[in-house]
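Late entry, evening session. Most of the bench is empty. Finally got around to the prediction I had been postponing all week. Sequence below, unchanged from the version circulated by S.P.
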Amino acid sequence: MSFTRRKVLTASALTAGACAIRGLFGNTVFGADGAKTSPRPVILATDIGGDIDDTWALALLLKSPELDLKLAVTDYGVPLYRGKILAKFLQTTGHGQTPIGLGPEYDDAKHSDGALARQAPWVKDYDLEQYKGPVHHDGAKAIVEVIMRSPQRVTVISIGPPPTVAAALAIEPRIA
């Protein structure tokens, strides 16, 4: 079994488990001491758009009552393509107000093994301008703004190569 297939199967199992737990407890989140707590604010940095694994991870995150997605940013590759996938997925799943940020463009990603074309038919007619939530064209700056404005600690979940996160750290090292 390939590494990618294992990741997809793991994401499937985790999604099913999260849905089962949510069904038992609803949207209530409990801390280690059993007391009700607020969901943890998170930023997702993703290279969504090649294999399906990042899409599964985003679905799991959105179904996890203990997490509150404050921003989703694209990482590595063609930011408009990845941004369109994020926007359309978030919109389709009822999360169309979630801010998204576009990461930097990388020339070598344009010449990849064709992974970028896998989800292209789904977003070929999608116009990023129709997305109702904020679209930040500088994803690194958006990461910095979300973290620095938040009264709570923000967890960055990076599930791909991290150039957007690295760029955010270069802008403001205090976010680490």
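Two things to note before I forget:
The first strand starts at residue 40 and ends at 46.
The chain is about 45% helix and 15% strand.
Will write this up properly tomorrow.
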